[in-house]
Amino acid sequence: MGKRGRMCPDLFPDLLECSSFSSSSPANDDVDRISELPDVLRLHILSLLPLKSAIRTGVLSSKWRGLWAHRWPDPSSLFLSSCSSSSSAPTGPAEEDAFVSTTNRCLAKRGRRRIDSLVLSFHLGQVLQSDLKQWLDYAAACSVEDFHLCVLPAEPASAASSQTHRNNNSINRRRSASSLIFHFPMDSPLLIRLSLRGIHLSAANSASTRLEILALHSVTLSDAALRKVVAACPLLRCLDIRRCRDFRRIQISASGPHLKSLTVVDCPKANELIVTSAPGLRSFRFCGTFLSRYSIENAYGLEEVYFTSAVPNLSLPNSNWVSSFERLANVTALTLCSHALQYIAVRGAGKVGPMRSLYRLEELQLLMLMMSDTSLNDLFSFLRLYQCPVLERLFVELPTCNDQHAENFMEIEDEEPPKDCLDKLKTIKVRNYKGHHNEVRLVQYLLLKATNLNSLVVIVSRESLEPEYSKEPSSRLRFLHLQLSLFTKASENAQIVFCECDIDGIQPTHSEAFFKF
Fold first, then answer.
1. CB of 259 within 8 A of CB of 239?
2. At how many degrees (to 10) do helices 373-385 and 338-347 cross?
3. Which of 22, 84, 94, 450 is deepest in the core (most CB within 10 A)?
4. What is the pLDDT of residues 343-380, one digit of tens each?
5. How many C-beta atoms surround the C-beta of residue 156 within 10 A?
6. Are 337 and 305 in contact (CB under 8 A)?
7. Any residues with CB less than 8 A from the CB of 140 and at least 6 apart, and which?
8. CA–CA gap between residue 188 and residue 231 (Å, rounded)
9. How far is CA 272 from CA 183, 247, 248, 268, 461, in A?
10. C-alpha span between 72 and 64 (Å, rounded)
């Protein structure tokens, strides 16, 4: 942004269009005229901007910071939750009715005026379909831009509450446990972000929307309904699908070039994932059971890829994911789990020399669900089969459980550690280090081969130490620290940082955890 008060046209095109203030001579470069406007005028300018552009004006100066939140009559954002007033969810009909009544009073008091963000969160059985429809109509009438609807599972009723329910059949009939329905698309003309959880989605209407971000969590909808929804969002930039249990064939055919990010997590019945007409796709994250077929039309354009499975595999299901993986020519940040490494090792068994060069890969994160001999061999196989000539950052997440005697499910010969493949590596971070045999082998190998290493950060958790060290963990920690300091280093400048918590601030691109180790 340069000098105070000067705006970058690439970041704030809308704001510049709204303002008639510009500097016509170098003498005016230091004058921050737009920030000297009265609040009422600056709020009017913000009211002409989309929500995301209004938020970004906060970098202009301290006078703009946070001002966007007041561009509409208070409150410009609403968070309405049945659990917000107490630590436990309402279990009786009186409490359930109170949430509906309180929400209705709140919305009526505010009136039908513009609103930036609206969040509704409650448990299944607390709200009728007619109540929900009334709230959705309100959000649409207020031209909401950011809407979140979270329907949590029904809470088990207490004994007293159950007796009350039995004595009040009318309320019992009213509180149906069936799923609520959200009819897509929502009528708000300015809706940009939509997040739905725990609801049935109907997509009978295929009218086009302005949606840019869509998140579906535990939503019930068919394969055909998903195709309709995506087709109705030509401006969609980010699609996040999690724990939707009815999908069989997830087919994403973007109706525009804007789709940049796709996330699919834990859709257990799905066996195919097909992505077409998405030339702008740059980020793909997948976590779940390996599918039989992956087809990403423009895989060569992907820059960030996360591919993991937390489901134990005693055998490898038939899947073509490795073939699709080999098309990732431009990936710069990659996250793989030990199960994915196992697929790669089996496919590359017997091959001499590398299969592919990930010549743009700068960051690699490995999530090791086990650290058996086989797991370490699979890791070495990956480094041998896929050359990474510009790899600079390596993150290794070791298992938290005590698996030093883990069974090797595949009887294979020890993999010879690859040579000369980590010349550019500058940063290594290892979490959950316990000093087990294969963990030591891995760290020794990395220190020997990373000739330009600047830092190795090793994080040890007291909770992950073996039970016999629980009484005096400090002695075990001192031993591990001393052990690391004695390892041979190929880089004289390499600093070994040993700590019990993550304090260095170095985080991988994919820092969100989709499963627990």
1. yes
2. 60
3. 450
4. 888 877 666 555 678 999 999 999 999 899 999 999 99
5. 9
6. no
7. 186, 187, 188
8. 18
9. 26, 9, 7, 11, 39
10. 15
